[in-house]
UniProtKB/TrEMBL annotation:
InterPro entries associated with the record: Thioredoxin-like_sf, Thioredoxin_domain
One Pfam family recorded for the sequence: Thioredoxin
Coiled coil location: none
Protein name per Swiss-Prot or TrEMBL: Thioredoxin domain-containing protein
Domain Thioredoxin positions: 1-116
Amino acid sequence: MSHTRKQHKHKPVIIGLVYAEWCGYCKALKPEWDAFKNAVKKDRKLSEKCGVFEVEDSDSMKSAKLAKMNKRIKGGEIRVDGFPTLFKISGGEVQYFQGGLRNAATLLEWAKQSSLYTGGKRKNKTANKSRKIYKKN
């Protein structure tokens, strides 16, 4: 558990799920959510920038876990108006997953949309090479 806390503490982006075991939509989402979590772990670049959080509605520690996530949000908190609730915390703000397919690929794209995911400067291989200018005779 302390490893999870340490992971989230240093991650600029958190993708979260609040779900209920009894919820049919949550049951349908669970395999896609698990595939998303595995894909984040396998993507080194994304896993350095993005943490994954989940809590089940009946978890006795749900309030404490959400309170900890709420500390990352400036002047707000995570709203759980229904199940499943998918959210992203980035730059002190919370965004909710609205519409779209709830599958691993879509969730990955949503996670990568954060400006924090963008990598370093892309090297232009031709920029350093001298260009030949050809003249017509």
